[in-house]
Each structure stands twice: as C-alpha cells, then as structure tokens.
Design brief:
Helix content: 25-40%
Shape: globular
Strand order of the largest sheet: 3-2-1-4-6-5-7
Distance between the termini: 51 Å
CATH class: Alpha Beta
Order of helices and strands: EHEEHEHEEHHEHH
Strand content: 15-25%
Largest sheet: 7 strands, mixed
Structural class: alpha/beta
Number of helices: 7
Radius of gyration: 17 Å
Number of domains: 1
CATH architecture: Alpha-Beta Complex
Number of strands: 7
CATH superfamily: Spore Coat Polysaccharide Biosynthesis Protein SpsA, Chain A
Length: 220
C-alpha cells in the first residue's frame, strides 16, 4: 500500500449540469448518463488502488453514486481553480499525506496506473509535484505534498488550451520540480467520449453507456 490519499473531484451527475459540453449532439439526459458512468468507473478504479485514503470532493447531492470506501467533502463555491484548491485543503486537513487529485472524466484509469502515479509522488518527496496532462492542453491529475501549494491553482486559468502549461509554470515558479505522469484523454466533447470508451474495458459502464448513446444518435 502506498501512503497516499487519492482525491476525486466531481459533480453529481444531473441532466443540465453534468458534462454540458457533450450537448449537442447528446441530450442533457444522455450527457448525464455518460457522466454517471465515468464517475462510477473512476471511483471503482480508485477504490481498488492500493492507497491509504480515498476522498471525494462532491458538488451536489450523492444521489445514486456509490461512495462506500470514500470520505466525502462538499465542494466550495467559486471558479474551478478555487474549488480545486479548496478540495485539496479540505481533503488534507489534519493529515500530512501526499495527495493525488483526479477528475471523473478519465474513466480509463486503472488501479495499476493510479498506484504508479501515487508511487512517483511519494518517491519524489517534498519540493516536487506530479502532473498528468491531457491532449487538449488541460490536465487530468495533480499530485502535491502540501495543501498550501494548491493555493496556486486559484491564479491559473482553467479549461483552456494552455491550462496545463500555466499550471506547470505556477508550480515551477513556486520552486517545485514537476514530474510528468502519463497523458490521458479526458471527456469534454462527444468525440472524446468515443475515444475514451475505446480505452475502457468492454464491460465498463463507460464503454456500455457511450456505445448505447452513439447508437441512439445514429441517423434512422
């Protein structure tokens, strides 16, 4: 077991609030179904990873989410950078465990991949961070040794083509060495969902739900 905390930040899957950039071509209900599948697969991978603690920073009511094995902290108000910083602070309160934060939109993650990312974070030691970028210029994972470092995220513009670059620059500007994690595609638009579903196990929620939505969207 790696002495790391895994932190998942997610919205509760609700039509009209979840994965809105999937619409169109998806309906709000289809987008929420894909979001729910991605959250479920992500939580399963985190639950199976050999780490010390698991936390979900949740926006909204749990609803049908299976959160057994996780501590749950509510997300704060504010923009994404503010919410990310607060999620780190809330999850790390009272504990010095290094923390690896991921979103819910890379459901192709596996317990083995998360374990390797966590091991790198621990082995790198204080004064470092680990960052997993996405092809669209964002990032899917960030590992830190202290919650105070996460305050830097409040200064980084999010959901842009240069978000990962700016995040790296902010971390390095604070004197940290940034180590790279594997790049993963995250689900923002429907072509992303199709690409990610191929990388998921065929029996996964994401693969099954995306295939069902794709079939429903095919012209009659």
């Amino acid at each position: 077991m790696t002495n790391v905390r895994l932190l998942v930040i997610t919205k509760a899957p609700v039509p009209g609030r979840s994965k809105t950039r999937l619409t169109p071509p998806c309906s709000p209900e289809q987008a929420a179904a894909i979001a729910a599948a991605a959250v479920g697969d992500t939580l399963d991978a985190v639950r199976a990873a050999p780490v010390a603690r698991r936390v979900v920073a949740l926006d909204g009511a749990p609803g049908g989410l299976e959160l057994d094995g996780f501590a749950v902290v509510p997300q704060t108000d504010g923009d994404l950078g503010t919410r990310l910083a607060a999620a780190f602070a809330d999850a790390m309160a009272g504990s010095s465990l290094p923390t690896l934060l991921i979103g819910m939109d890379t459901p192709q993650v596996t317990p083995d991949l998360l374990a390797r990312c966590a091991d790198l974070l621990v082995a790198s030691g204080p004064g470092t961070a680990v960052l997993g970028t996405a092809p669209d210029g964002g990032w899917w994972a960030l590992g830190l040794h202290g919650a105070e470092t996460a305050e830097l995220l409040t200064t980084v513009p999010m959901s842009r083509a240069d978000t990962a670059e700016l995040t790296r620059a902010a971390l390095e500007g604070a004197g940290l060495t940034v180590l790279d994690l594997p790049e993963l595609t995250d689900i923002d638009h429907f072509p992303d969902a199709l690409a990610v579903a191929v990388e998921c196990a065929p029996e996964s929620r994401t693969a099954r739900v995306v295939a069902s939505v794709a079939a429903a969207l095919e012209p009659a």
